[in-house]
Amino acid sequence: MTAKSVAIVTGASQGIGRATAVRLARDFSAVVLVARNKDELEKTETAVNSAGAELLIYALDLRDPRSPEVVVQGTLERFGRVDALVNIAGAVPQIDLFEMTDAQWDDGMALKLHGARRLTVHAWDALKSSNGSVILISGSAALDPKPGFAAVATINAAITALAKAFAEQGIKDGLQVNSVVPGAVMTGRRRSFMEHWAPDHGMSVEDAMKQFPEKVGIARYGKPEEVADLLAYMVSPIAKWMTGTSVRMDGGEIKGI
Fold first, then answer.
1. Is the residue at 192 inside a domain?
2. N or C end of the chain, less CB within 10 A?
3. If DSSP codes are grouped into helix, strand and coil, which group holds residue 205?
4. CA-to-CA distance for 190 and 123, rounded, in angstroms?
5. Is 213:172 a contact under the CB 8 Å cutoff?
6. What is the CATH number of the domain that holds 90?
7. Is the pLDDT of residue 150 over 90?
């Protein structure tokens, strides 16, 4: 079977990944959902079904070097093509620079950086055939590194550089590659972080949640759906000349030009 258009979304079990899968289901005839948590993926499946796109689901760990090949080969066998790849998967520990272990550094690199790199490489020929689009998700910590966010900042900066390198090859091969830098988006992961952070700073979780936007200089948290709308635009036909760029969507958090 060959679908008209196919998007692969990693990290599709929650947050920006889930919102993106739901949003792209309105524009693509098939969406491939990839994440580690099978139960949460099933919730995404329920949300996507209402949009009418065909679905293919992979509950696997992109830290495993074999996983990207499984996803791409299965997608091609089922749908015959890949038109968009949105790399969102990647939870990086927010631990003090001087306390992080090598294992924690390596774990963050394995999923967010190497997982995205391998999947993009494996999907490249299919994307080349469809003149497709790739997006890698970075994060605002890359532009404003702090000791407590050293791994997040380092890995996100590497993601941005990786996207730029892929984009240079994409110009030759006829596909576009960009990165997106979200700021403080309200997701379950962010709330979980606050639940650990607030008690250590003598605050209730609710107070910490309320004070954080003001602390970083934004009016409010972003919504996963807002980032998803941006990603949908970037992989749409009307954005085909956009490549090799890094787009910030952070509510004004990063004050530099």
1. no
2. C
3. helix
4. 30
5. no
6. 3.40.50.720
7. no
